[in-house]
Amino acid sequence: MATRLEGVTVTTGGWRRSHSALRLAVDAARQTLERTGRTPDQIPLLIYTGLFRDRNLGEPALAPMIQEDLGANPEDPHSGRRGTFSFDISNGGGGVLSALEVADRFLRAGTVDVVLVVSSDANPGHGLAPGFPFDPAGGAVLCTRSDGPGGLGAFSWATDPDDGSSFRATVGERTGSNVLTIHHATDYAERAGRVAAAAVQRLFDQESLKPIDVDVVVASPNDDGFRQVFGDEVGIEDERIVSAGARLHTVSFLAGLETAVTSGRLARSRKALFVCASAGVTAGAVLFTP
Q1: pLDDT in tens, 140-152
Q2: 37 & 127 share domain
Q3: How far apart are CA 220 and CA 236, in angstroms?
Q4: Are 50 and 119 contacting, i.e. CB atoms less than 8 angstroms apart?
Q5: Could you tell me if 26 and 141 lie in one domain?
Q6: What distances in angstroms separate CA 137 from CA 55, 122, 255, one per listed residue?
Q7: What confidence score (pLDDT) does residue 16 get?
């Protein structure tokens, strides 16, 4: 059994969507379904991994709202019919990779046959996020179960706890509004690169692989410092690393994945490596065989 990635889409924010993580997520999800020939009611599981959302609200979960706007079985399941289960996962820049691991477990168990992973971030506007450093974007990828070989392999995670000193986002009450403040240390990318390298090295040891065995790496964040430190530590030159969306956060990995897919590099590879790093500092990696 294998978990395949059937389609990936990344959308950017036009003037109507630039301050709405919900609209960006729904738009990306719709385009992914259209691209893969699926209808919303064929999605039994939807996972949302975005972090920066409308009006800086942490609740309610956005996944059920995306499900409702898509029309993915919004009513309670009727007897003999399949419904849609949806929930959020919050792991910052590594949220999509965390969701792929959860999706892989559901698919391998045979609980579902399709999982839609969606993410988005947006500046809430109205002075609620001064100096917001990320561009508005939404992304989605469809995961399916296959009886053939390949697909996602084992996942590996590593962490170097820093109590949020290198990257943190906090929301506090100011003049009656929830105001978002983001702290981003200058050495965050380099620290993230080292932790990502540790996760990959653990994965290589577990799978008895060497860097030369990987043809393409889809990595997030898209940062020169991250790629240089990561590549030097693991022994993978920059030419094999695909990243996209320099000013994206939780959608950054999906942007890199879309680039790898549309360029044909993922399809041409014998073995690919997916890597994500997030605040904490935490990083994860997984092998993918097209």
Answers
A1: 999 999 888 889 9
A2: yes
A3: 15
A4: yes
A5: yes
A6: 16, 7, 9
A7: 59
Instruction: Give yes or no: residues 11 and 125 share one domain.
Output: yes
Looking at the fold, whether 144 and 19 belong to one and the same domain comes out as yes
> Are residues 102 and 186 part of one domain?
no
The CA distance from 97 to 5, in Å, is 13
- 79 pLDDT tier (thresholds 50, 70, 90): low
Report which of 265, 257, 252, 261 is spatially closest to residue 216, judged by C-alpha positions.
265
Domain that holds residue 99: 2-148
138 and 158 co-located in one domain: no
What per-residue confidence (pLDDT) applies to 76? 74
Cα 188 from Cα 5, distance rounded (Å): 30
The structure tokens listed for 39 are 């209808």
**Are 216 and 124 contained in the same domain?**
no
> Of 121, 148, 175, which residue sits at a domain end?
148
Chain Cα centroid distance, residue 125: 23
Q: Which CATH number does the domain housing residue 60 bear?
A: 3.40.47.10
pLDDT in tens, 134-188: 899 999 999 999 888 889 999 999 999 998 889 888 888 776 678 888 888 899 9
Q: Is the same domain home to 12 and 96?
A: yes
**E strand or H helix at 105:** helix 95-109
Question: What is the Cα–Cα distance from 123 to 131, expressed in whole angstroms?
Answer: 9
Burial class (CB in 10 A: 0-12, 13-18, 19+), 68: middle
206-212 long-range contacts, CB within 8 A, separation 24+? 206/154, 206/156, 207/153, 207/154, 207/287, 209/271, 209/287, 211/235, 211/236
